[in-house]
Structure formats: structure tokens, C-alpha cells
Write a structure and sequence with these properties.
Length: 274
């Protein structure tokens, strides 16, 4: 199993500001203006540090504080391109940017797979999960051109099969012991909804639009939150310590406080309420 604290955590000091250049910034996703992919952010300095790092949210760059590359940036910088940055004339900057986007997908898969294999309920499929973790990890060490030629969709589908199976196993063990099953709003479109009185233990919230929802004090034990949009969701006092398939970027976009219970693998954002 991969060490989440090292391999899959963002380390900007070991990167070349790849997210500040390779990504498209959208005004609708926490940025003051749109920015084309491949164009350097105006706040990126020559040493790849951010000139307004300590003041990003006040400058309208909430998207930056929410973003998480799962450690893909340093992997591309130090391993794939062995320390050569995107300004080096010997390499193609566009290729490096494309590789970064692919690497991030692979590292995100590894994040979810490592969460899956840490669960006891799905022990019966741990061998399958362990095998695909090893296969995915090997892919992250391919050279740039091989990564670009990778059938990432096919591999993601294989990973998703095991994540779905894990979700069913884990959630069913919770649901089978409940007298009242979770009632999720139709279509999982809960934008702006008050869900404080909805039983969400063991709920399937995959891809749910939970934008600006009121989840204050809600118990989300064993709920599947993979891909759920938690932007501006109120999770103050909520229990997410035992939910499955949640990421740091999701937490970073929500509104929590010191009473919000988080999984040990995630950090409490510094800008949350005390």
C-alpha cells in the first residue's frame, strides 16, 4: 500500500508550478477571471512560487486553495522529467502539461484505491485492489510519450469497477442494519437543500450536487462521496470521519469548523471557522 502522506500529497516545493500553467482557470470555479491552459498565471514567479500565496482567498482565488494534484506535480517534475521544467528548450512544454493532467488522474485513482484497501468490510476483494494498485503505480513511472498514449479511460473503468464494488459492500453493511433507509432527493440534485433531517448514513452520494447544501451536524458515516460537489456546503459539526472516497479538494471547498469530524487522512483547512 502506498504511503498517502508522501506519494499522494501535494508538495509544491518539488514542482514547477504545473497547476498554475497547465490548467484552465474558470471564473465559475473560484477564480477572478478565465485563464487559458498552457498560459502561466500572472502570480507565478520565476522560482515557481506564488506571489500571493498567503492571500489567495482574499484575492478571489478560492480555486487555488481548493485544488489538489494528489502529488502528481512533483512526480512529473522529479520523476518523469527528472528535474527539467517546462521552460527547458529540450522538452515540449505542451507534452509536460498533458502528462501532468494524465498523472493527476492516475494519482487520484491511487488515492481512492488506497482508501478502498484500508477498509475492513471489503476484505474479500483486497487482492484485486492490491493488484490494480500495483498496475496503476507502474503506469506512473512511464515516460512522457507513453503516458500520453495511455488508454486512461479504459484503466479508469477497471478501477471504478472495484471502487463501486467496495461502495456496495461497505454501504450495504450499514443499510442492512437500518430500519429506515436513506431517502436521497431525486436525481441527487440537492443544490441549496437543507439535508439536516435526512438520514445519510451509508448513502450513495456519488457525483451528487451538494453545492451550498445544509449538512450541519449530519452523520455521513460510510456514505460514498466520490465526485460529490461540496462547494459552499455547510458541514459544520458534521461527521465525515468514516465516510468513503472523499478528497482534500472536496473538503477545501466546503464550509466547516473545529467541530467538523474529518478522516485522519485529510487536513482541516486553515480558513475554516474556529
Amino acid at each position: 500500500m502506498i504511503d498517502l502522506d508522501k506519494s499522494l500529497r501535494t508538495d509544491c516545493k518539488q514542482c514547477f508550478g504545473l497547476c498554475c500553467v497547465a490548467l484552465y482557470f474558470s471564473a465559475s470555479e473560484g477564480f477572478p477571471t478565465d485563464k487559458e491552459s498552457g498560459k502561466s498565471c500572472i502570480n507565478l514567479k520565476s522560482d515557481f512560487k506564488c506571489s500571493i500565496h498567503n492571500n489567495l482567498r482574499n484575492q478571489g482565488l478560492k480555486g487555488c486553495t481548493a485544488y489538489d494534484c494528489f502529488g502528481a506535480g512533483q512526480k512529473v517534475a522529479k520523476v518523469t522529467y527528472k528535474g527539467c521544467d517546462w521552460r527547458d528548450e529540450k522538452i515540449s512544454s505542451n507534452e509536460m502539461f498533458d502528462v501532468f493532467l494524465i498523472m493527476r488522474q492516475l494519482h487520484e485513482m491511487l488515492w481512492y484505491l488506497n482508501q478502498a484497501i484500508s477498509l475492513k468490510e471489503n476484505y474479500s476483494i483486497h487482492d484485486k485492489i492490491r493488484t490494480i494498485i500495483e498496475d496503476t503505480e507502474k503506469l506512473t513511472y512511464l515516460d512522457g510519450k507513453s503516458l500520453i498514449g495511455l488508454d486512461i479511460v479504459s484503466h479508469k473503468n477497471k478501477v471504478n469497477v472495484l471502487l463501486l464494488e467496495t461502495s456496495e459492500i461497505v454501504r450495504n453493511k450499514v443499510l442492512n442494519g437500518q430500519k429506515k433507509l436513506p431517502k436521497i432527493p431525486r436525481g441527487l440534485d440537492c443544490i441549496g437543500s437543507d439535508l439536516r433531517n435526512v438520514n445519510l448514513k451509508g448513502a450513495n452520494l456519488r457525483g451528487s450536487l451538494l453545492i451550498a447544501t445544509n449538512l450541519r451536524g449530519v452523520d455521513l458515516s460510510k456514505a460514498d462521496l466520490i465526485g460529490a460537489d461540496l462547494r459552499d456546503a455547510d458541514i459544520r459539526g458534521a461527521n465525515l470521519s468514516d465516510c468513503i472516497f472523499i478528497t482534500q479538494s472536496q473538503i477545501n471547498t466546503a464550509k466547516g469548523d473545529s467541530s467538523t469530524k474529518l478522516p485522519k487522512s485529510l487536513n482541516r483547512p486553515f480558513y475554516w471557522e474556529k
